[in-house]
From TrEMBL:
Annotated Pfam families: UvrD-helicase (PF00580), UvrD_C_2 (PF13538)
Superkingdom: Bacteria
SUPFAM superfamilies associated with the record: P-loop containing nucleoside triphosphate hydrolases
Gene3D superfamilies assigned: P-loop containing nucleotide triphosphate hydrolases (3.40.50.300)
InterPro entries tied to this protein: DNA_helicase_UvrD/REP (IPR000212), P-loop_NTPase (IPR027417), UvrD-like_ATP-bd (IPR014016), UvrD-like_helicase_C (IPR027785)
Residues the entry annotates as binding ATP: G201, G202, P203, G204, T205, G206, K207, T208
Protein name per its UniProtKB record: HelD family protein
Length: 744
């Protein structure tokens, strides 16, 4: 083995980190300096903020590069070579020569794809393993068999690097896989940005890892576009988002919004829970019809023969069935949402009432034309429009509604549903639930926002800005140097100096200042219900209800989406489960399906047990192929005291490196908690603790070194998709699985 080769690689890595330190210092100094500069005027402040944001982004990327900065090297047959890294870094020379190439660059692709059969121009590929800033191992693969150079690092299996990553003790936080992305995964990560891509695969096939690396890749390849529109990643629950939350920052990417479906209605925190039945009813597509019907029901007319009578100075006003029906018809004809169609209803009624009054007051008893002139009628109309009682009466017929008010009323008295469904969702007051969020969004669409008042305020502010800008321009005009004026005086066209006046008018100058919202796109997106994201990634996509899909599709008008999931793991009773069903209403059959077939998480011994469970529901089921086996067989015990058995099993495992999960139905948690004093539990458990107590739903998407599944039969029978829940629970372990069954 050539120590010379090792030394050279270490030298390179040392030089690389020195450059990283310099870049980091520069970025830090730039941020510091910018923060200390007050920024004169709006423009100055804007420039300062942009500078801080840019440099902070760079700083985040440089900090991300600290660990595992460079992990590979490609040596091409023509002699040139590249080091591959987590982020790209260039030398400080005139050509800005690349020191290390970003893993997402096209030139890095052979690192993931080249094979002996298709070497892609490579003669050798090197995996460099580092610990901190020290090189700890090199693995060389010779791809050009005619190349006789030997470094001494060849005859070792490059899969060692992958297997070491898979075997490593878990930390409670997901790690990136840039060093060991497999070819089938790479193709998905880099597939085109447009359109809907569905990635399906069994447990542990790397769907989440691929989805996150795809986000990083897209942000790199389409930075301009996606930095403006932001990328949204949707995951099933807050614990899962916490689990994956470090991956993108470790790749230097921070411009991404991570959210559960229950967090996608700004201003609403969904802290309540639904019964599975209620969630299923709320998630069903029929709910859209029901809500639309309920909105129409809020557009009322008085009963025939029972008009609304409003006292008015010039005589009682009568809103009768005919008049209201006509006004409602006209308003509905606009096909506008409820709140936006409302002014049409109001104006129609006001007109009709003014006419009613005019007919009464100006009527010629002998049948001749009305005595009132247009001015008198206009005056009457004004009086009617100014009468608050008239508006109060109209409000009872066509009330302005907010989504929150409307849905709360609807849930108190659900309509357009079967009796059983209505009973399942009926709720008077209480907290919003995740299943309510898509309904709030649906309601917001049906109601529309009458933002005329907000727009008027905005316009007034814009006018104020224009006036201010005009003032600024006037001052700049007045302060031109005498010399320029002189020149202009002599010959108006001769001035070669452009002043602000020549190139910009006050309106445009003011518009520039309107961009003073310096939040990142992801931050602005989080606060805006109608935000259209540049790309949306949905993890555990099989869990989403039809109503949640309606919400997400509204956020993705371009339909640029990556959906990852596994129908066999569907747990939510409202989960749609079939890609065709999910997608047909939005893109018909214009979507692409790719499958991942290798299980990187679960050893073969554990997967065999999990597959047997799955086959109960689907006899022909074929599990994904496990990439490794550990020789450790899962165990199962039937015991009288499952709580004590669990506590003993945890105690036996504690102390070893890694994480332990106890996965048990919620009903057992109160008994298990005191027996597991070191365990973290609850709605958002700390996954970095050595022991975590979860129910099967919470375990979705997570992984642990050791998993203990308690009372599998209760899991299986405890939910509509109980078999799937058990399958999920059994496939969470990277090393050891124990199953504890209470004696009957
Ligand atoms: N190419 C790879 N190199 C190293 N580790 C990998 C690779 N692909 C996947 N893994 C690891 O395998 C494990 C499972 O991956 P991931 O959680 O993405 O699978 P999944 O398909 O989303 O699983 P599930 O459906 O069960 O949630 C993770 O620890 C991940 O880091």
């Amino acid at each position: 083995m050539s120590t010379e080769e090792f030394r050279k690689e270490q030298e390179f890595i040392t030089e690389l980190y020195a450059r990283l330190d310099d870049l980091r210092d520069e970025a830090e100094a730039a941020v510091d300096q910018a923060l200390r500069t007050p920024g004169v005027g709006n423009q100055g402040r804007l420039e300062r903020d942009v500078m801080v944001a840019e440099q902070s982004g760079l700083l985040a990327a440089f900090n991300a590069g600290e660990s595992g900065l460079c992990f590979g090297r490609l040596v091409f047959r023509d002699g040139h070579d590249h080091h591959i890294g987590r982020i790209g870094i260039r030398k400080d020379d005139a050509d800005r020569t690349p020191l290390v190439v970003d893993w997402r660059a096209e030139v890095a692709r052979p690192f993931y794809l080249a094979t002996g059969y298709e070497p892609m121009g490579l003669s050798r590929r090197r995996h460099i393993t580092t610990h901190g800033r020290e090189v700890t191992a090199l693995h060389d693969e010779v791809l050009d068999l005619t190349d006789e150079t030997r470094t001494g690092y060849e005859n070792r299996d490059a899969d060692e690097v992958l297997l070491a990553a898979l075997d490593a003790a878990r930390t409670g936080r997901m790690h990136d896989i840039v060093q060991t992305i497999q070819a089938e995964q790479d193709r998905i990560i880099r597939s085109p940005h447009q359109g809907v891509l569905v990635v399906e695969g069994g447990p542990g096939t790397g769907k989440t890892a691929v989805a996150l690396h795809r986000a990083a890749y897209l942000l790199y390849a389409h930075r301009e576009q996606l930095a403006k529109r932001a990328v949204l990643i949707v995951g099933p629950n807050p614990a899962f988002l916490g689990y994956i939350g470090n991956v993108l920052p470790s790749l230097g990417e921070t411009g991404v919004l991570l959210a559960t479906p229950g967090e996608l209605f700004p201003g609403v925190r969904a802290t309540g829970t639904d019964t599975p039945r209620a969630a299923a009813v709320k998630g069903d597509a029929a709910m859209a019809e029901a809500l639309a019907g309920a909105v129409r029901d809020r557009q009322q007319v008085p009963e025939r023969g029972e008009p609304l009578i409003v006292a008015h100075d010039d005589g009682d006003l009568v809103i009768d069935w005919d008049m209201a029906l006509e006004a409602r018809h006209k308003a509905r004809e606009t096909h506008l949402p409820h709140n936006l169609a409302r002014p049409y209803f109001v104006f129609n009624l006001l007109d009709a009432l003014a006419e009613q009054l005019a007919d009464r007051i100006g009527a010629d008893p002998y049948g001749g034309p009305n005595f009132l002139g247009p001015d008198d009628i206009a005056l009457l109309a004004k009086g009617v429009a100014a009468n608050p009682d008239v508006h109060a009466a109209i409000d009872t017929l066509w009330p302005p509604l907010t989504p929150e008010e409307f849905l709360a009323d609807y849930l108190a008295e659900p309509t357009h549903l079967s009796e059983e469904d209505a009973a399942a969702v009926r709720r008077d007051g209480g907290e919003w639930t995740p299943a309510d969020v898509p309904l709030l969004d649906e309601a917001a669409e049906l109601l529309g926002e009458d933002d005329s008042a907000a727009r008027a305020a905005q316009e007034a502010e814009r006018q104020r800005q224009i006036q201010y800008a005009q003032g600024v321009l006037d001052v700049s005009y007045a302060s031109r140097t005498y010399e320029f004026e002189d020149k202009e005086e002599q010959d108006k066209d001769a001035s070669e100096v452009l002043s602000a006046h020549d190139i910009i008018d006050a309106e445009r100058f003011a518009e520039r200042h309107e961009e003073a919202d310096h939040r990142s796109a992801a931050e602005r997106a989080a606060a805006d219900r109608t935000w259209a994201f540049g790309h949306i990634i949905v993890d555990e996509a099989q869990e989403l209800s039809a109503m949640a899909w309606r919400l997400l599709m509204r956020r993705s008008p371009t339909r640029s989406m990556t959906l990852v999931g596994d129908p066999a793991q569907t747990g939510d009773a409202a989960g749609v489960g079939s890609w065709e069903k999910i997608l047909a209403p939005y893109v018909q059959d214009r979507w692409e399906l790719v499958r991942l077939r290798v299980n990187y998480r679960t050893p073969a011994e554990i997967m065999a047990v999990a597959a047997d469970v799955r086959r109960e529901a689907d006899p022909g089921f074929e599990p994904p192929r496990s990439v490794r086996s550990t020789g450790v067989a899962p165990w199962e015990r039937t015991v009288d005291d499952p709580v004590k058995e669990t506590a003993d099993a945890v105690a036996a495992e504690l102390g070893a490196e890694g994480r332990i999960a106890v996965i048990a139905p919620q009903e057992l948690h109160p008994a298990l908690r005191p027996a597991l004093p070191e365990a973290s539990y609850g709605p958002a458990p700390d996954l970095t603790r050595p022991v975590v107590l979860l129910d099967p739903r919470q375990a979705k998407g997570l992984e642990f070194d050791t998993v203990l599944v308690v009372d599998p039969d209760a899991v299986r029978s405890g939910a509509v998709h109980g078999i799937n829940d058990l399958y999920v629970a059994l496939t969470r372990a990277t090393q050891r699985l124990g199953v504890i069954r209470p004696a009957a």
